[in-house]
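pls design
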């Protein structure tokens, strides 16, 4: 796994921050200058196979990194993105959080077409979530 190799320093990457549980480095093909990826040191594919503590640790550095991103890039804002599964756009199957600097004139855009629930379907979905989450306790 390429990100395991980056975490182990077996292949080079522009590492900007690391701690016991995660490593943050520059994306080699950035959507904007200063695009950062944060990964768990341990190989995990997505939040689905992480413990709450592991997932929390992955996001622990996000406040500090986002402040640095704003200072370094002068971004007006940023996207925090985690793709899970090929259908979502995940290409590297080692979990990673994208921090993508944004400016009003960056041309990146961001428009997903919001849908709507047919009558009664929202209540069914709500009920399904509540049941599944209650069973997980
Ligand atoms: P995904 O589409 O899986 O969410 O994003 C994978 C990201 O990893 C992409 O933005 C891609 O540019 C980046 N990436 C892939 N291989 C490497 C690499 O070897 N080094 C670095 N620094 N970034 C990589
Ligand atoms: Zn890995």
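designed seq:
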């Amino acid at each position: 796994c390429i990100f395991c190799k980056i975490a182990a320093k077996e292949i080079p990457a522009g590492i900007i921050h690391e701690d016991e549980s995660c490593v943050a480095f520059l994306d080699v093909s950035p959507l904007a200058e200063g695009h950062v990826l944060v990964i768990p040191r341990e190989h995990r594919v997505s939040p689905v196979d992480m413990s709450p503590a592991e997932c929390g640790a992955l996001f622990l550095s996000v406040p500090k990194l986002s402040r640095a991103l704003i200072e370094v890039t002068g971004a007006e804002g940023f996207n925090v993105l985690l793709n899970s599964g090929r259908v979502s756009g995940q290409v590297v199957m080692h979990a990673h959080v994208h921090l993508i600097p944004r400016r009003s004139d960056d041309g990146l855009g961001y428009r997903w077409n919001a849908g709507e629930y047919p009558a009664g379907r929202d209540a069914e979905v709500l009920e399904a979530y509540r049941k599944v989450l209650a069973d997980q306790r």
